[in-house]
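Subject: sequence -> structure tokens, single chain

Hey, anyone have a minute? Need the predicted structure for the following. Not urgent.
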Amino acid sequence: MDKIITIYHGSEHIIETPTFGIGKKNNDYGLGFYCTESDALAKEWAVSSLRNGFSNCYTLDTEYLNILNLNCPDYTILNWIAVLVEHRLFSIKTPVAARAKRYLIDNFGINVNAFDLITGYRADDSYFDYAESFLNNGISVEQLAQAMRLGKLGEQIVIKSRFAFSKLKFEGFDVAPKEQYYILRKARNDEASKLYQEILSHEIDGMYIQDIMRGGIKNDDPRIPRNLYQ
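Reply:
Had a minute. Here:
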């Protein structure tokens, strides 16, 4: 990562001064300021079917920041899932899912609050359904990894610490017209839903969350897929 990066935050508001400690605790990686290096993707995230949005542009000095990159080969897809289940609100439909949530956090969890900045994938719309199905023993870890590799999942950069917030510089904004970007957002989600149904239609031998728990599988097991796009 370059020391000075340009990032974008999609919102229904113009945000000249992002504020540390403001936001939703139940986002993918907890409380933070969620951005992307893609202006187009920020515009998709900013709009709804009823309103336009804004892509707020910032430069960020990453020198001296403690950065967690969940997409590097040091981490498995289950590290990503563990972070999600700790912060997002999942539908726990079975006793297996309740045990799975605890097992994932205990064995694959990462203290994201120890970092200034996090890079990782966004559990947007249908991609959140994939994670929820895995937690409820509905798809295998191999199917989950396949979905993430084939899908056009957006990568996000999350500003976590007060120090990182102090390194942000507002550079302006651009309007995201709903007529253009909501269509793109919906197409991305529809493609993910179609992919999910295709994956479910094929029987795949593999490890389900119940197998992982029964086998006492840990983060260093070579059978767990690493790096979501690898």
